[in-house]
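Entry:
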Amino acid sequence: MGANLEITEKLQSYIKDFSFELNPIQQEIIDYNKTLGEIKRMQIDPTQCYFLHLIIKVANIKSVLEIGTFTGLSALSISLALPNDGKLIALDKNEETNKVAVDFFKKANQDHKIKTIIKPAIDSLEELKNEKFDMVFIDADKMNYKRYYENSLHLTRKGGLIIIDNVLWHGEVVDEKNNDKFTVNIREFNKFVSDDHRVEQIIFPLGDGMTVCRVL
């Protein structure tokens, strides 16, 4: 029986060499984030950039809502895959990192597709309640994941996708001795989604784990 590989730095480099090239601005964001210290962990993994690009192309996604933007790598990855008339609304409450992200969007000539909203996501989601999206990507504060997910269900068209990052939580979800509030919250969230008959879902071991849900 096959088993998932441990993705070492050397293997990561090999994957990069034999996949399509990232946009130079995507790489610039990755390099910039490396200078940020511990906070760089908020960035998605490059393999997730490839995945988001492919799934948007294959599913003909045209409208996306992102909850949690940081310095813009996931948003830019999404926008580059969207058609020229596609749209992405990116939610984040951090003005400083949002400014960095917007500068990168402009540099990549993608700012015409991306609208950023700077305020707590819960407030923004309420204001967007009459919108419909082909896809929602959730990568924000983990304690609010269930609220973001419930809102996303109402904002995603039937057959659309909800993708949630960090669902394996550095592997700690399977450590029965780890009962800190974040790990417990992710475990409970994963169980909730698994039992939710409004979607069909699978967890992919990319980056820190991604759940992909198709809305039924």
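The first strand starts at residue 63 and ends at 67.
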